[in-house]
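Dear colleague,

Thank you for sharing your sequence with our group. We've completed the structure prediction you requested, and as agreed, I am returning the results in plain text so they can be pasted directly into your records. Please verify that the sequence below matches your submission; if there's any discrepancy, let me know and we will rerun it promptly.
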Amino acid sequence: MRAVVTRVSSASVTVDGKVSGAIETGLLVLLGVGPEDTDAQAAKLADKVCGLRIFSDKEGKMNLNLEATGGSLLVVSQFTLFANTKSRRPGFTGAAAPALAKKLYEAFMAHCEESGFHVARGMFGAEMQVSSVNDGPVTILLDTDAM
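Please find the predicted structure tokens below.
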């Protein structure tokens, strides 16, 4: 699994002109699922994301995690994180099939919720407009194959 995690002061996702998910302070997570990914990886990635100490403390150092700030997550499925860009037209055969991707997208969010976090979400498979106000900016790339 791959995730692009951005610290935000606000973020939202809109589908067909209607907001399907929105947060204030927290993390915008663009989540990609590969064909060999498992629920165990979803749990491991959720734990990593929720525990990242990327929020500033009183001294301005990144020492606080999502729990310490009372923040939320907005999770958006993003199969393009598995793009093959060898040519100028990306290919997406490296992404998981939709059934597996949706299952693990839901599992990732469930693990975050089980840890006590509010999780807003995009709509799997839909054309979405994602808005965010990046805070910092702070953006972290995570890949379960490298964890």
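Summary note from our side: The chain has one domain: 2-146.

Kind regards,
the structure core
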